[in-house]
Each structure stands twice: as structure tokens, then as C-alpha cells.
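Example record used in the benchmark description.
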Amino acid sequence: MSIKFVIITRHYPPEVSGGARRPSLMTKALRELGHSVKIISPFHLPEDSDAIQIVHPVRSISEQESLNSNPAKNARPTSLLRNAIRQWALWPEPDIRWAKKVMTFISSTDLEADWLLTTSPPESLHCIGREAAKVLNAKWIAECRDTWISNPHREILERSKFRKSFETRIAKNAFKGVDAVTAVSEAVMEDIRLLLPPNVPEQIIGHFSEPSTQSYNFNNQNINLVHAGGFSLSDRRRKLKPLLEAIKRSNKENLHLHILGPLAEEEINLLDHFNTFTISAHGQLSFDLSRAMQASADALILCTPNHSHALPGKFAEYSTTGLPILFQGNGSWLDLVEDKERLIPIEIGLKSISKNDRNLNPNRSYFSAHSAAELLSDFCAKLL
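Model output (C-alpha cells):
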């Protein structure tokens, strides 16, 4: 059964993030299964005739000026003040302006769909889901990659009880009329259930990825440790300093840490205080280059905040390599990992890792984009 999907996503390549990777891989896999997928995003995708660009009100987001730009260095007091005003003036968050532009476009087009999929964060996309699906004469499925109200990823919801209370009302109203919901984990689904009407069909579709088809030459004799993604700029609770301190305490020679992602200005300054091992901050890289470096490393680094419920999306990428994953942090996310032998506490892993023994697992298992697309399409087909 061929299904027509329209996917509204704020994050999509050329943007580099877990939020961009997921809809991109899902779109490709759904099309390979014979389904029709139209993507609505802020980005111009000339290679995809079924991609629709709705330019973001913050034009630099749509323009993606530089993969290696440092947001911390570019931030000025005026822009910080402007961002603070946006947070309190625009509900549930500033991307509601882009969501409304998408809604205006959908209202004036002849798009056809069986299913409309809105994916969050940002949560504002769910606020147009019901109305957009009605215009398209489609069913609406909301995908949730993170919690919204409980254990929120946005700090403002923790600081302000008023904000949290009022946004809970916004969320419950947004989900009225939703036909189905997917989430990346049971922990996320538990949060979303509190906001849903009764008896909404639900499906867990975890993080997924595909192996890299490229390799990378580090051009050194060091033990190359790769951490994909940023720290506080990616998750305000993820800290760089504990990782650097753990590597320093190992007293192991020839360690070379590669950070593939943006760093805040204070994190860049922190690097100068750790000179007993080599650190390369590569900035934001393309998906293909980042995955090639991951596949060619000696070990991979996974850092999570303590007491975290969320299995990081990068774990799906790491799992395709068969390499040892040295982890730092704790929480219920560890219970979501089926192949626990692959995970090594960082203090133990740093002592045992060797340049000449990459500990490749030829029988590596991972959740593929093809399997995720089959799960989604079967779920949607049953509800049509």
C-alpha cells in the first residue's frame, strides 16, 4: 500500500543535527519503500523535487551561512535581549512564527496527503497539525523526539511555573484531534500521554541510522577518540569539563580527542587548560564527514547528563561502526541499550583502548532507517 506523506520539519539537511538527520533518513527510506513524501522545511533543496522551502523569519536559519560558525562568538547583548523577548512574546516558542508561515502556505496550495507528520522539537509545529491536516484532508501523526513538559529540554519551562502551567494548556489544546503519536522512547511517550486525549494510537520508533560508506585518514599515530556533536550548545545539561578531566586522569599517552560539533566560547577557552593530551575542535561538520570520522576512529565518546532519561541520537550512529563506545554519565537511558557489551565506562575504556586493536564487532547490530520506515508505514497503514 503506497501512502502519501507530508512531513513538516524545522530541522533538515543542510542543517547538521540529530533533529535534521532523523527526517532526512526517514524520508529516503519511506521513498525506497514506494511511498510518496513531500518535505516542508526552511531550506532550499534543489536536488529534491518534492521538497518545499518556507523561508524562516530568521533568514540566517534558511541561508545556513557557515557550518563552522560559532554561535557563541557571534552572539551580542542586543541579540540575547531580542531572544529573551521572543521567548516571552511567542508561544509555545519562537518557531511558532515559521509554523504559521507553513500554515499559510498549506492553506493556499493543492497539496494532497494521506498522512501529515509534524516532528518536534520545536513543539510549535504540533500547534498547526490539526488545522493543516484538515486542509489536506489527511490524518495527522505527531512525532516527539523529546519531552515537552516533564523534564523539559527548554530551560524556561524549568524556571517559570507560570510558563510551564500555561504551556501545558497550549500542549493539550494542540494535541486535540491528533490521530496518532510516535516517540523515540517510552520516557518521551510517558510525557506526551499526559497531554493527549484518551485512546490515541501510539508507536515507539527509536533512534536509527545507516553505516558510513566513507573513511577518514586521521594522519597521526595517536589513539583517536571521537565525540560527535556539541556539549552545552546541544544540551544545556551536557558539560565538557568532566570529559576532559576524565581523559586527563587516565594518564594515557597518545590520546587525541576530536570534537565534531560547535562549542560555546567558554568551552573553547576551557580547552587551553588541558594540555596533557591532544584536542582538536573541528566545529560543525557535514553528516558525511562526521560519520566517516566516527567510522575511522579507535573509540567513540558518548556523554550524557547525569540522571538522563534520553538515549542520545548519536548512539544510533555510533552503533553502525562496531567500535567501542566509552560513555560518561548515568540515568535510565542505559536501560534502553540492548547491546550493553558495546558500552564501556570511560574510566575503564581509556585504560584498555589500543591503537592496534579497534575492537571491531563484525556482527554489529543497529536499528536501520529501513526498519524504522517499515514500522512507521505499517503503523500508518493500519490506521487509514
